Amino acid sequence: MTYRIAPSILSANFAKLGEEVDYVLASGADIVHFDVMDNHYVPNLTIGPLVCEALRKHGVTAPIDVHLMVKPVDRIIPDFAKAGATYITFHPEASEHVDRTIGLIKENGCKAGLVFNPATPLDVLEYTLDKIDMVLLMSVNPGFGGQKFIPYVLDKARAVRKMIDDRGLSVNIEIDGGVGPANIAEVARAGVDTFVAGSAIFGAAKDSDPQRYNSVIAAM
Ligand code: DX5
Ligand code: ZN
Q1: Catalytic machinery residues
Q2: Which residues make Cβ contacts (< 8 Å) with residue 72, sequence separation at least 6?
Q3: Options 3.30.365.10, 3.20.20.70, 3.30.160.20, 3.40.605.10; CATH of 4-218
Q4: pLDDT tens digits, one per residue of 16-68
Q5: CB of 196 sitting under 6 A from ligand 1
Q6: Which DSSP state fits 96?
Q7: ipTM > 0.90?
Q8: Which of 74, 95, 116, 191 could join 120 via S-S bond, C-beta 3.0 to 4.6 A?
Q9: Considering the entire predicted model, what is its pTM?
């Protein structure tokens, strides 16, 4: 299995975002996790396509994993595709027509993923698993960085891994929330291959040290 580390820029210093992203990538991160919050679907407000485009113009070539915590979801998808998103993931409860939203993401040239809140059942995967590229399991309730990992999500990870393996698919499983060096091995054993970490990575080092993320990323 190929494991990937996806730092969540939600915990980065937004005043120096380009630099922060350069450093985590230079320190071994694989994907940039980009949290989009609308103060409607979730009680927080963050960043949109402009910032994604700015990262591309800054020279970021790594995959950008856009996690949409917005409702409605469809109308912002083409803008994120134009802004350089690689993955676009959305919460099924934020879309009126899940199949249509998956199709829209793909028509716009991006990889599609579904996001499940901790208490959201996985039923929708029955008819969508073969149409998506990634399942994102929230291990905290969405809206904020720095929350505590909810352990029962490991059972969901095992269930999704079984569904993917039973059907012979190559869908990625990503986990988001409360992940860091202390629990990443256990999360990997549950079948997860892509690990979002915000506070564990960006909270780990001093701003002035250019190598500031080396040791925490190496520990993951
Ligand atoms: C929460 C976001 C996460 C968050 C993770 O709604 O989707 O990506 O930034 O942060 P940590 O790793 O600090 O839990
Ligand atoms: Zn996220």
Answers
A1: 35, 176
A2: 94, 95, 96
A3: 3.20.20.70
A4: 999 999 999 999 999 999 999 999 999 999 999 999 999 999 999 999 999 99
A5: yes
A6: S
A7: yes
A8: 116
A9: 0.94
